[in-house]
Specification:
The complex is a heterodimer. By secondary structure, chain A is of the alpha/beta class. Helix content of chain A is 36%, strand content 28%. In chain A, α6 links the parallel β6 and β7. Chain B is an all-alpha fold. Chain B has 9 helices and no strands. Chain B: This is ABC transporter permease. Chain B: Keywords: Membrane, Transmembrane, Transmembrane helix.
């Protein structure tokens, strides 16, 4: 499957949720969609999942518009922080209903997941705690085995052990049944190891889309004597700086050449890695960041 | 692979479970009434008559709930179109099933009550006459059009009786669905306007049906009495098509609420 988003915009009466978004997703990988609150993550995902139509631009999946397209829609699952207050079915009944509409649904696997999350199969879902309802979403999303599976902040309310089960099962099932999985989150530090590829979205625009490893190799912290560090980073895009006495540490964005690395070493500067979380925080807080990146 | 037959089946059974609950409660009420009448030695209302009156309101209510199946289906990868077709088929099924089940129960009941217990059921032809006693009050018309709908005695022509019963139920379901779809699509303020349209649909249905069946009409619309039956039957048909069409327009591209 392939998702192609082309010049997509979504406008509401008084604000622009998405503005001219273009990107492509082609491989059966885990994609992290990262953005701050209100960045437009859910808006974007809800268009891919045919929950709504865009104002302009297009989404195509395998070359076809997914909206009201039965062939495509059955292969796209969108799990979000759903309100289950009216769901009086228990989880087994819920899954039996869903199974009828998802061609790849695996009930045995669903039952295994229910055990992992220790969900009560007799209890109506609206009596579940918030975290357990989130686990229901995870079970539905994973067991549906849809070629495109979207988890939008689906872990909300889950405690740390439950989240850990989610991440483990996600990786395990992705290995056995590879598909396109999009994880939207702002729990970056906790989930970064899951991503094969990362998409940053900020104020309704795509900031960057990059392979996780190559993205990390683009950022660095340069630490050392204040004056030396300042000269070294002069030509670089600086994300953040900290200073303690004469020692300064600057986070930069942009690949370092071998020559530059060598020079840093010769000057006694320390070149350290940067975490996805740091990149996320500092890239999304900058003003006019898209101009700087391009 | 088409999804709408599956949707139709699933929605039919989900709503049939509610229907069994409703018919069951009506049955218990009816038994209690019969016992009371047995003690007093008076005439009792039959099951058919009781359900005939209450089921209209029941259908409006489940019609109002019909919109809540829409997000469920879209979330599970079913198109709005398949939902619409499936829900429509299910509502036709329900509208047929309720009168048939009711008729069967009431035949059995009548047999037991009249032959074994020896009490008579009250005739309910009065339903059709009441309308001429209400003089030109729109609220009165409205209330009547919901609770005292045009009625055909199953004893005289049971196919027509069940047909008219089914038709009423179907239109009441559509009215409920129409209102909830407008609220889902436009929110409260515009939704209220759609309630006005729904009331008009209901009143028109009542008048068309009364003329088609040659039943008494309230004074307000007595001028319409001269309309030939062919026209009113066609009017009834167009009314249904219009309502169904608006429901489709309201749900065709609607954004799913999250």
């Amino acid at each position: 499957m392939n998702i192609k988003v082309d010049q997509l915009s979504l406008h509401f009466e008084n604000h622009k949720a998405l503005e001219d978004i273009t990107f492509e997703i082609n491989e059966k990988k885990l994609y992290g969609l990262l953005g701050r609150n209100g960045a437009g993550k859910t808006s974007l995902l809800s268009i891919i999942a045919s929950f709504r139509e865009p104002t302009s631009g297009s989404v195509t999946i395998n070359g076809e518009v997914p909206f009201e397209n039965a062939k495509i829609m059955q292969h796209v699952a969108f799990l979000y922080d759903k309100d289950y207050k009216d769901e009086s079915d228990n989880i087994k009944e819920l899954l039996q209903g869903i199974q009828r509409y998802r061609p790849n649904f695996d009930m045995q696997y669903a039952e295994y997941l229910i055990q992992q999350f220790k969900l009560d199969t007799k209890k109506p879902i609206n009596k579940f705690s918030k975290g357990m309802q989130s686990a229901v979403n995870v079970v539905v999303g994973l067991a549906s085995r849809t070629p495109i599976t979207i988890f939008d902040e689906v872990y909300l309310g889950m405690d740390a052990p439950a989240r850990d089960i989610f991440y483990k099962e996600l990786l395990k099932d992705q290995e056995n049944h590879p598909r396109i999985i999009i994880l939207s989150t702002h729990l970056v530090s906790e989930m970064d190891y899951l991503f094969d590829e990362v998409i940053f979205i900020n104020k309704g625009k795509i900031l960057l889309q990059e392979d996780y490893d190559s993205l990390l190799s683009k950022g660095a912290t340069i630490t050392g004597d204040r004056d030396l560090v300042e000269t070294f980073v002069q030509s670089k895009m600086q994300l953040n700086e900290e200073q303690l006495g004469h020692t300064k540490s600057v986070m930069i964005y942009g690949e370092l050449t071998n020559q530059e690395r060598k020079m840093a070493m010769e000057q006694g500067l320390e070149v350290g890695p940067i975490s996805l979380q740091d990149l996320f925080i500092h890239l999304t807080e900058e003003e006019n960041i898209d101009e700087k990146l391009s | 692979m088409k999804n709408f037959p599956k949707v139709a089946r699933d929605m039919f059974w989900a709503q049939m479970i509610w229907t069994f609950g409703f018919l069951g409660v009506m049955f218990i009420i009816n038994i209690v009434k019969i016992v009371i009448n047995l003690v007093r030695g008076t005439e009792a209302d039959g099951y058919y008559a009781s359900v005939l009156i209450a089921s209209n309101i029941f259908m409006i209510i489940i019609g109002l709930l019909a919109i809540y199946f829409l997000p469920y289906y879209v979330e599970n990868g079913v198109t709005r179109k398949d939902y619409f077709k499936g829900a429509l088929l299910a509502s036709v099924g329900l509208s047929l099933a309720i009168p048939i089940i009711t008729a069967i129960i009431s035949i059995v009941e009548q047999f037991i009550v009249t032959t074994l217990l020896n009490i008579n059921f009250r005739g309910i032809d009065i339903i059709n006459e009441v309308v001429s006693d209400v003089d030109g009050n729109i609220i009165g018309d409205l209330v009547l059009s919901v609770i005292l709908t045009p009625y055909v005695d199953p004893g005289s022509n049971w196919i027509l009786a069940i047909g008219v019963f089914s038709l009423q139920l179907f239109i009441f379901y559509l009215i409920g669905w129409f209102i909830s779809a407008s609220f889902y699509r436009f929110g409260t303020v515009t939704g209220l306007l759609f309630i006005l349209v729904a009331i008009m649909i209901n009143l028109l249905k009542d008048y068309f049906l009364r003329i088609s069946l040659g039943l008494p009409l309230s004074d307000r619309f007595s001028t319409l009495d001269s309309l030939p039956q062919g026209v009113t039957v066609l009017g009834l048909l167009l009314l249904i098509v219009f309502t169904v069409w608006i429901i489709r327009l309201l749900t065709r591209k609607v954004a799913i609420k999250m």
